[in-house]
Design a protein that fits this description.
Blueprint (H helix, E strand, L loop, with lengths): L2 H8 L2 E7 L2 E7 L10 E7 L3 H8 L2 E7 L6 E11 L2 H10 L15 E13 L1
Antiparallel strand pairs: 1-2, 1-4, 3-6, 4-5, 5-6
Length: 123
């Protein structure tokens, strides 16, 4: 199964980043694949702690459990900020709920991270 499709079916997934010596997790809901690469994209606000955590320590993990099942996924990846306005525009189109927070791809607080998948396990 395609990774981003699995995450979309879960509706919410947890992004874990490093907060000093300890992991820090929080739920996300918007994800996108772009141009068929082995990358997924997640968004955040550049005023949030997760933004700084991913910028300062790019190794991260995504974990998701599909509702009403025992199917889950663990993704290890490397996060890098994506500043390409075309990709940001695509994210806003793919995930229309983001428009509640960001008016356009050039919103100064709209941050997008490209996650290079290192490994993935479906359970």
């Amino acid at each position: 199964m395609e990774i981003s499709q699995f995450l979309k079916e879960c509706e919410a997934f947890f992004v874990l980043s490093m907060n000093g010596d300890f992991p820090s997790g929080r739920p996300f809901g918007a994800v996108m694949e772009y141009d068929g690469d082995l990358y997924i994209y997640i968004y955040t606000d550049n005023r949030k702690n997760v933004y700084n955590q991913l910028k300062n320590h790019s190794q991260m993990q995504i974990v998701a459990l599909k509702q009403e099942s025992r199917d889950w996924i663990r993704i290890n990846g490397i996060a890098s900020e994506c500043i390409d306005f075309m990709v940001k525009k695509k994210m806003l189109m793919e995930c229309p709920n983001l428009k509640k927070h960001y008016n356009a791809e050039n919103d100064i607080h709209f941050a997008l991270f490209q996650i290079k998948i290192v490994d993935v396990n479906f359970y």
